[in-house]
Amino acid sequence: MRSPVPSSVLRTSRSRCSCVAADVHPPGRRRLRSAVREDGYETWTFEEEQYDVLRAFICQTIEDLDDGDGVLLKDLVTIAEERLAGHLRFPSGRFTNWIRFVKVDLECEGVIERVGSTSPQRVRLA
């Protein structure tokens, strides 16, 4: 199967799924990274403003709450539902999937990392 991303704009690393692509998504949209897809990217896009809000929220919340053991993923979701309630970019007020999508993207980028391999899942800044 041929990759939809030309190899000239894709860089991968064996240590993590860090891929860099240029102009592979429509303007104002962001194609999220994937740890399981061969080309390193999901097949759908995410509104860039939504991504920016959630990326800043996740990074800041982890920085504020991490006492060395990481932050529970479910706590990130709960806090997002409280702090981002009524935000114009998230009219449904549901954040479980939004947080998970951006979390995986940040893991692939090497910005955050999972703590341990047990459940419930914890993350920290890398």
Descriptive report:
Strands 3-5-4 form a 3-stranded antiparallel β-sheet. A hairpin with a 7-residue loop joins strand 1 (29-33) and strand 2. It is α+β, with helices and mostly antiparallel strands. It is globular and about 40 Å long. The chain has 2 domains: 7-45, no CATH class; 47-125, Winged helix-like DNA-binding domain superfamily/Winged helix DNA-binding domain (Arc Repressor Mutant, subunit A, Orthogonal Bundle), CATH 1.10.10. It has helices at residues 48-65, 73-83, 96-109; strands at 29-33, 41-47, 71-72, 112-114, 122-125.
List keywords for this structure.
disordered N terminus, 17% strand, 126 residues, alpha+beta, 2 domains, 3-stranded antiparallel β-sheet, Arc Repressor Mutant, subunit A
Helix/strand/pairing category? alpha+beta
Mean pLDDT: 81
Instruction: Spell the H/E element sequence.
Output: EEHEHHEE
Distance between the termini: 33 Å
CATH homologous superfamily designation of the largest domain? Winged helix-like DNA-binding domain superfamily/Winged helix DNA-binding domain
Strand order of the largest sheet: 3-5-4
Largest sheet: 3 strands, antiparallel
- Fraction of residues in H or I helices: 25-40%
Highest-level CATH class of the largest domain: Mainly Alpha
CATH architecture of the largest domain: Orthogonal Bundle
Molecular shape: globular
How large is the radius of gyration? 15 Å
Number of helices: 3
DSSP summary, beta strand count:
5
